Amino acid sequence: MKKKEVSIFAFFLLFAQPIFMTSNLAIARGASGFIPPVSLAFWRWLLAFLILVPFVFPSIRKNFKDLISEAPKLLILGLTGFTFCGAFPYISGLTTTVINMGIIYSASPIFIILISVIFYHEKITKLQLFGTLCCLLGVLIIVCNGQFKNLINLSFTKGDLWILGAMISWAVYSVYLMHWKSKFDLFTKFTLMALAGTIFLAPMYYIEEKYFYTTEFNKDFYFWVIVAAVFPGIIAFQMYAKLQKYLGASLTGLTVYMMPIYSALYGYFLFNEKLYNFHWFGGFFVFIGIFLANKNLFKLR
């Protein structure tokens, strides 16, 4: 592929990949009422693993000793990036909107900065610190629906808190992944982390089935599981890997900033959700914070 063709294709991927990535938030909202949240997360990652493992099994078998040595790290990444970030958004979708989820999730790069500064002693300027505070303010505005008295009364939407937990877990996953040098390629790592996430989801799935919800294995179940495994899972990851190849990690990181835009479109067209003033104010502070902190973000990526 020629350089000009690569540039056009990469430019297309930069805007197309977040459509698939953000579709997971729309799935979280749309699947609520049809399939229990943990059940959806469990079967989604199990299906993704089963689809991909035939392609990466020769690499795993060839590097089995590396698999044993890297197992603890794979389990941590699977827990944070696949178990928590797999189940929490779906639980969130029961009680909050796609718009809220998208805006709150877009603040994950800021938490990546905070975690990197605290645990890996990354340097941060005063301007970047101010940007971080702006972004945190924006998240608080969204979480408390623009009513700061809710902070005092602890009156939050449960779904907002779940997606906030997912966002923080994604930040932990991202930082750990950035500082981990693996002998496996990205495709193989994704497959192994999907397996690790499924392993941790198994007991949560059992508890959900026994004490909370029962999964009905009908056409709705198969539809949502397949869509979740393929579109925000396998396809989104493959497009992300292509972006990293063509543009590098820094520019690829821009995709997460488009989530509020695409989540708003999903919410508006698919679920008749409305944009309120606190969405605009919260989103404004999130974007201002990201803009001010972008130098540090690009350094990390």
Give the SSE string. HHHHHHHHHHHH
Query: Largest sheet at a glance?
Result: none
Beta-strand residue fraction: under 5%
Total helical elements: 12
Which residue ranges are poorly predicted, with pLDDT under 50 across at least 5 consecutive positions?
Answer: 296-301
Question: How many strand segments?
Answer: 0
Overall radius of gyration: 19 Å
Structural class: mainly alpha
Distance between the termini: 26 Å
* Integer average pLDDT: 83
Share of helical residues: over 70%
What count of domains describes the coordinates?
1
Overall shape: globular
Helix and strand arrangement:
Blueprint: H1 3-30, H2 37-62, H3 64-92, H4 98-105, H5 108-120, H6 126-143, H7 149-153, H8 158-178, H9 186-212, H10 219-252, H11 259-271, H12 277-300
Task: Explain how this protein is built.
With 301 residues, the protein is mainly alpha-helical. The chain has one domain. Helices cover 82% and strands 0% of the residues. The chain has twelve helices and no strands. The chain is globular and about 55 Å long. 46% of the residues are buried.
Key phrases:
301 residues; mainly alpha; 12 helices; globular; disordered C terminus
Structure at a glance:
The protein is mostly helical and 301 residues long. It is built from twelve helices and no strands.
